[in-house]
Amino acid sequence: MMERIGSTTIWEGVVARVRIDEFRYPDGSTSRREVVGHPGAVAVVAYDERSLYLVRQPREAVGEDALLELPAGKLDVPGESPVDCAKRELAEEVGKAASGWRELKRFYTSPGFAEEEVIVYLATGLEEAHAQSDEEERLEVVVWPLEELDAAIDACADAKSLIGLLLFRELRREEGA
Amino acid sequence: MMERIGSTTIWEGVVARVRIDEFRYPDGSTSRREVVGHPGAVAVVAYDERSLYLVRQPREAVGEDALLELPAGKLDVPGESPVDCAKRELAEEVGKAASGWRELKRFYTSPGFAEEEVIVYLATGLEEAHAQSDEEERLEVVVWPLEELDAAIDACADAKSLIGLLLFRELRREEGA
After folding, report:
1. How far apart are CA B173 and CA B177, in angstroms?
2. Are A11 and B34 a contacting pair at CB < 8 A?
3. Across residues B114-142, what is the average pLDDT?
4. Does the active-site annotation cover B93?
5. Under an 8 A CB cutoff, do A36 and B36 touch?
6. Which of B43-52, B77-86, B127-136 is the least confident region?
7. Which end of chain A has the smaller Cβ count within 10 Å, N or C?
């Protein structure tokens, strides 16, 4: 097993942290790696009989005015479980609560340099929630017709959202929808 | 349209670079964002009648000894086009050349904080190439049976590879494979 034998934070900003970690491999050799730290994140495929609940928001890092994505957020509240984070984000971003929660997949967004792991959930049994947050002033809720799921996949350029939508399409096919 | 009106590099390592970019939105308001720079990357779904050509490698950033992934690499050679980068990576990582190249999808791996965009290609008409690199000493080639594609998707925890494999499964279904 590879082992982490050292870690030094070399830069810390408001959002990003960069570490140099040192590793020892099973053959005894070692290496140093720059790692961009991340607390992890969750994303939610939320749907009812007619619609998927998506969002559009500016993504400054990639120069996009309005990237189509699943409701999502970072695990940045100490002590909050991933599924509770997903519930909070779904309420804050699209104003919905859900009675059914199921984990669809866990994955790393860019394991070559970033620590981020995302858990994608499926949320069903939706009802109105009144927790929309003022923080997300540039976020637009997109009620996307379920019958146009293929078009959402074509339009989506965000990795976590693509994975959620592709796995959701698969599930619906298995269920004969 | 959102506009980038300023950019300052605040930390630069061997791999990662962090900038503070300033943006102006259509309503005239502005914001500053930390952005982890990235040159972009390519990944390749390479297959023949029997097999998919995957790799396993340690991913120190996420503490994984042997993450299952598509052959892939960063766009870090000045002047090299994305498809040429994909050809080089396929040769270096799994020792294959391909006569057919098709772009499957472009997406951002983590647009909330990182600039990285990945292009996933489908590569067909494989033959042996002799360009395997010594740099990738901890990389293992995995010849994965095509009929066990579902198991590769289940085993995969890397976003770019998941997207490539999910879209490939879809294509094969459309082609009646």
Report:
1. 6
2. no
3. 88
4. no
5. yes
6. B127-136
7. N
- Quick check: A34 and B11 CB within 8 A? no
Catalytic residue among B49, B135, B174, B175: B135
* pLDDT in the model for residue A37: 94
CB count in 10 Å sphere of residue B39: 14
* A144 vs A156: CA distance, rounded Å: 12
Strands laid side by side in the B51-59 sheet: B64-69, B51-59, B140-145
Which three-class secondary structure state does DSSP give residue A83? helix
pTM of the model: 0.95
Nearest CA in chain A to B6: A60
| pLDDT of residue B135 exceeding 70 | no
The catalytic site residues of A sit at: 135
Strand, coil or helix: B72: strand
How far, in Å, CA of B1 to CA of A57, rounded?
12
Residues of A in contact with B10 (CB under 8 A): 11, 13
Other C-beta atoms closer than 10 Å to the C-beta of B138 total: 17
Residues of A in contact with B74 (CB under 8 A): 112
For chain A, where are the alpha helices, taking DSSP H only?
Answer: 82-94, 149-155, 159-174
* Interchain pair A13, B18: CB under 8 A: yes
What residues of chain A score a pLDDT lower than 50?
none
Token code pair at residue A130: 């009144």
Q: Which of the two residues, B176 and B69, has the higher pLDDT score?
A: B69
ipTM here? 0.95
Distance CA A23, CA A6 (A): 7
Is B112 within 8 Å of chain A by CB?
yes
- Pick left, alpha or beta for residue B27 (phi over 0 → left; psi -120 to 50 → alpha; otherwise beta): alpha
